């Protein structure tokens, strides 16, 4: 009986130690088993992915993928025209009140003579831009001899005799209290980006990337190209708002399509190249917008290539 107790006492700590070692070895065994199960699931998922299996057979980046990705790069050059054109179409112009009424009594007056007779001057000698002399029913000799004294705000609009380019400022007379707030214009554009992200992001998950891709390009064609034909400044803001929605819709759909067409590091390379083409478009915009003589030509240059692009997609 004592021998049995001694044997139990002698083997008891060793037995508990072996049991503890067995218990501590279970987590590592279960961890390796879990990793094995994950690998098996990954293999099954890859086997079920038909695109991955096809790309493994024909190549991860071939001529087909190259052509598809290259077609998404071209509109990125044009996107910069629609996204960053506000800085180039709002060039400041020096306005003067339209005083063409004096040409009825002096049709041979030059621009300098017309301004000198009909516009008041500031203390530094320059013409005031928001005031004019009140028209009088005198002949030209009387106006030259006696001069005009009473002023009023511009009654007949403004003229820009020394402006070399046609901008939004002199197109819609955004002067003398009607100046546009660039921060508000940027807010309108960013509001279009926000709503376009929500709308096209939701729509691309519901109906697919490719329909959204075509819808956004059609939106750029209608509202981006159509910006060149607006008649009021508020129409310009509306078209800019809608063009911003279409632009962000194109970015969302094109990035999603590239991610689905390519695998591995080719995805990162394609997305980086998309941003490079956007930067290239900004360079083209800077060169074109500073050389064209009319702000509408900026949107015509950006919208015209959309016709052949959308017809070949």
TrEMBL record:
What GO MF terms are annotated?
transmembrane transporter activity
Question: Residue limits of the Major facilitator superfamily (MFS) profile domain?
Answer: 125-313
Q: Where are the transmembrane segments?
A: 64-84, 187-204, 210-230, 237-262, 268-286
- Specify whether Disulfide bond is a keyword of the entry: no
Location of region: Disordered? 1-26
Its Gene Ontology cellular component terms are: membrane
Ranges of Polar residues compositional bias? Answer: 1-10
UniProt keyword Transmembrane present: yes
PROSITE patterns reported in the protein's UniProt record: MFS (PS50850)
Q: How does it sit in the membrane?
A: Multi-pass membrane protein
Quote the subcellular location field of this record: Membrane
Q: Which UniProt keywords apply?
A: Membrane, Transmembrane, Transmembrane helix
In terms of InterPro entries, this protein maps to:
MFS, MFS_dom, MFS_trans_sf
Major localization class: membrane
Q: What name goes with this protein?
A: Major facilitator superfamily (MFS) profile domain-containing protein
């Amino acid at each position: 009986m004592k021998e049995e107790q001694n044997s139990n006492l002698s083997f008891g700590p060793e037995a508990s130690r072996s049991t503890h070692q067995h218990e501590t070895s279970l987590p590592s065994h279960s961890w390796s088993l879990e990793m094995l199960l994950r690998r098996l699931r990954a293999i099954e998922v890859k086997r079920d992915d038909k695109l991955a299996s096809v790309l493994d057979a024909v190549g991860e980046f071939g001529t087909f993928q190259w052509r598809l990705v290259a077609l998404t790069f071209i509109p990125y050059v044009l996107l910069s025209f629609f996204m960053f054109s506000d800085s180039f179409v709002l060039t400041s112009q020096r306005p003067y009140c339209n005083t063409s009424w004096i040409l009825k009594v002096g049709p041979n007056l030059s621009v300098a003579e017309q301004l000198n007779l009909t516009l008041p001057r500031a203390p530094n000698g320059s013409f005031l831009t928001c005031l004019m002399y009140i028209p009088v029913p005198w002949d030209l000799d009387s106006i030259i001899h006696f001069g005009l004294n009473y002023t009023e705000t511009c009654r007949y609009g403004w003229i820009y005799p020394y402006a070399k380019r046609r901008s939004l400022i002199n197109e819609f007379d955004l002067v003398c209290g009607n100046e546009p707030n660039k921060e508000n214009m940027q807010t309108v554009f960013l509001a279009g980006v926000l709503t376009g992200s929500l709308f096209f992001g939701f729509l691309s998950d519901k109906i697919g990337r490719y329909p959204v891709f075509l819808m956004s390009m059609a939106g750029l064609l209608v509202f981006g190209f159509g910006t060149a034909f607006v008649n009021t400044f508020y129409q310009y803001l509306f078209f800019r708002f809608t063009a911003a929605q279409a632009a962000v819709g194109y970015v969302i759909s094109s990035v999603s399509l590239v991610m689905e067409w390519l695998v591995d590091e080719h995805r990162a390379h394609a997305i980086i190249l998309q941003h490079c083409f956007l930067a290239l478009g900004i360079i083209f915009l800077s060169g074109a917008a500073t050389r064209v003589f009319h702000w509408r030509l900026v949107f015509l240059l950006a919208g015209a290539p959309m016709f052949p692009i959308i017809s070949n997609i």
